[in-house]
Structure to design on (298 residues):
């Protein structure tokens, strides 16, 4: 990353998110479940989704992110973390490493890992209900929470994962199914992050739709870049999957179109994302973040 302005923003936002997550996940009894939840939440994730939520809010409200947006931003990160814990399980990708560390089930066993994932999803719902109540049932906050849970459910992330699972081990021959899988599995939670920030800022429906569209294209470009890095990157060095069940069985834009064409998709989706966000981005951070995510080397 060569922009110190972006680096500074990411540091500022990550610290805010981390402090808030720490408060939200205060240890109670039984301790083991909190340990397992906290292990994956504090395992070194980039905090991309909560940062997008904060940035969307700050861009549209001209205010610094505070409690009013941090609760839902952190709820999104908890849902993201639960999906990674479950995705790594032996019944799914069967991965032993994530972010360079042993996966949740390797450390805590399968039963606790399943429960930790469930507990994070449950905690996200609890946080959203508390947040809505604290804010006098503001209709925008209710709409944000509804969007988040829909985007992570069967019409979104879980639906995308189901397409992935039922096609595992065989080649997807229909490009539109592949697109639908990526859109649901990855983009919709990223969309939700942008949309939730926009709702909390009080944006109108037209702006909400633009932020939704931005998140969609950013998510697609981000996922395809991730798949390219899985093939061309040194997966051991960057601490991603073992590659065991992951790479050869996966249906991705790279396995379907090849690296070059996949990179063209990254370019075209990211240009679409940039075109939308440019008109809202007064500080330039959104543009820098988009560029950074889709050009990253690890
Ligand atoms: C198990 C319900 C269920 C869903 C799983 C999200 C997902 C669906 C699976 C995770 C594996 C995967 C390939 C997800 C695609 C999105 C993606 C690139 C996730 C990694 O996101 P980053 O890079 O992760 O933001 P960090 O580690 O930074 O938090």
């Amino acid at each position: 990353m060569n922009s110190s302005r972006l680096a500074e923003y990411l540091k500022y936002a990550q610290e805010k998110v981390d402090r808030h997550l720490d408060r939200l996940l205060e240890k109670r009894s039984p301790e083991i479940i909190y340990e397992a939840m906290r292990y994956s939440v504090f395992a070194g994730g980039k905090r991309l989704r909560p940062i997008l939520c904060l940035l969307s809010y700050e861009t549209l409200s001209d205010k610094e992110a505070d409690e009013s947006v941090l609760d839902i931003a952190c709820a999104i990160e908890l849902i993201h973390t639960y999906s990674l814990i479950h995705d790594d399980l032996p019944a799914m990708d069967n991965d032993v490493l994530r972010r360079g560390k042993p996966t949740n089930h390797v450390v805590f066993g399968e039963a606790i890992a399943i429960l930790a994932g469930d507990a994070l999803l449950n905690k996200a719902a609890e946080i959203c209900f508390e947040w809505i109540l604290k804010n006098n049932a503001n209709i925008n906050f209710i709409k944000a929470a509804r969007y988040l849970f829909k985007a992570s459910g069967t019409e979104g992330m879980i639906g995308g994962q189901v397409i992935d699972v039922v096609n595992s081990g065989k080649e997807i021959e229909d490009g539109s199914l592949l697109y639908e899988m990526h859109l649901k599995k990855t983009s919709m939670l990223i969309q939700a992050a942008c949309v939730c920030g926009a709702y909390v800022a009080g944006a109108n429906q037209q702006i909400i739709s633009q932020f939704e569209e931005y998140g969609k294209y950013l998510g697609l470009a981000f996922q395809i870049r991730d798949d390219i890095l899985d093939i061309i990157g040194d997966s051991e060095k960057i601490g991603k999957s073992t590659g065991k069940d992951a790479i050869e069985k996966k249906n991705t834009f790279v396995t379907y179109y090849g690296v070059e064409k996949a990179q063209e998709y990254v370019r075209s989706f990211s240009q679409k994302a940039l075109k939308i966000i440019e008109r809202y981005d007064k500080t330039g951070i959104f543009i820098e973040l988009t560029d950074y995510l889709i050009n990253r080397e690890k």
The longest strand covers residues 97-98. The domain at 4-295 is CATH 1.10.600.10 (Farnesyl Diphosphate Synthase).
